[in-house]
């Protein structure tokens, strides 16, 4: 690395759940809780700006539903604006809460990319599967991102709805991006972003999660993707509890406690930085 280049720094977040609907609360209390999520996100944004991070990853579930209230979307857009104006590139994939269940509509977040907002990339299940080659503004490090948005089981025919078929869909999406990146030269790091459940992942202590019944990818399958793509870091979203799946794949966890079952969980983000020639 040239002496005038800084070290690569990245923020990995997921499961922001902005605008989450909280039942059994008065309007005032619901609004205060919604603001709690934004306060945490703003702290993470401030940290990224202060530390001059190159990239800000959101591994799915930006909003609690794919069509957020106007003021929720506007607050999020403002924070994204603060990042991109400081040349921090935002890379986000769609999660299950960002994905309309009818598989026809698109998420509101896509509008930021369609508007040509610089330094903002958003990938959902209908995006063209192609790798993203981005250069960090501060470190000048060239990174290839492979994106795997949430895939609804309904997108797989009912007769073939199995772990094997689910993994095949993910593999095909990953492999197509990998094939399209074979001729890209001078790459410093390769990263993947996915919103999914890995078999054996831990859940919050007192939560009976809905994703207990979802299709899960096997750890061996995830390890295969890491090896196949020579992935330096795999940013995962969907499970709200922060944890490492292996030495190169981690769930950042959600940025705020969604319910009382998560009261004992530590919340925040993952700060990734370059050290001794690696991450």
Descriptive report:
The longest helix has 24 residues, at 27-50. The mean pLDDT is 86. The chain has helices spanning 27-50, 70-85, 110-114, 163-179, 219-229, and strands at residues 9-13, 55-59, 89-93, 120-123, 132-135, 142-148, 189-195, 233-237, 243-246, 249-251, 270-273. It contains five helices and eleven strands. The two termini are 14 Å apart. The strands form two sheets. The chain has a six-stranded mixed sheet, covered by helices on one side. By secondary structure, the protein is of the alpha/beta class. 26% of the residues lie in helices and 19% in strands. α1 (27-50) runs parallel beside α2. The radius of gyration is 18 Å and the shape is globular.
């Amino acid at each position: 690395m040239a002496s005038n280049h800084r070290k690569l720094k990245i923020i990995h977040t997921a499961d922001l759940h902005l605008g989450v609907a909280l039942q059994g609360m008065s309007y005032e209390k619901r609004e205060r809780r919604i603001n709690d999520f934004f306060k945490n996100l703003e702290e993470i944004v401030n940290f990224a700006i202060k530390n001059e991070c190159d990239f800000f990853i959101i591994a799915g579930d930006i909003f609690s539903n794919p069509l957020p209230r106007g003021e929720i979307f506007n607050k999020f857009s403002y924070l994204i604006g603060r990042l991109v104006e400081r040349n921090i590139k935002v890379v986000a994939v769609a999660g299950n809460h960002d994905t309309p269940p009818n598989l026809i509509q698109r998420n509101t977040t896509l509008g930021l990319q369609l508007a040509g907002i610089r330094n903002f990339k958003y990938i959902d299940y209908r995006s063209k599967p192609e790798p993203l080659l981005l250069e960090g503004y501060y470190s000048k490090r060239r990174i290839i991102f492979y994106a795997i948005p949430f895939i609804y089981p309904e997108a797989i025919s009912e007769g073939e709805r199995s772990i094997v078929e689910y993994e095949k869909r993910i593999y095909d999406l990953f492999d197509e991006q990998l094939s399209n990146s074979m001729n890209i030269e001078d790459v410093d790091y390769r990263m993947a972003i996915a919103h999914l459940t890995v078999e054996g992942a831990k859940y919050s202590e007192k939560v009976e999660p809905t994703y207990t019944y979802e299709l899960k990818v096997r750890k061996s399958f995830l390890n295969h993707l890491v090896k196949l793509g020579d992935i330096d870091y795999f940013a995962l979203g969907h499970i709200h509890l922060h944890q490492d799946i292996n030495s190169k794949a981690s769930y950042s966890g959600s940025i705020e406690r969604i319910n009382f079952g998560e009261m004992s969980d530590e919340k925040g983000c993952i700060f990734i930085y370059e050290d001794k020639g690696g991450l």
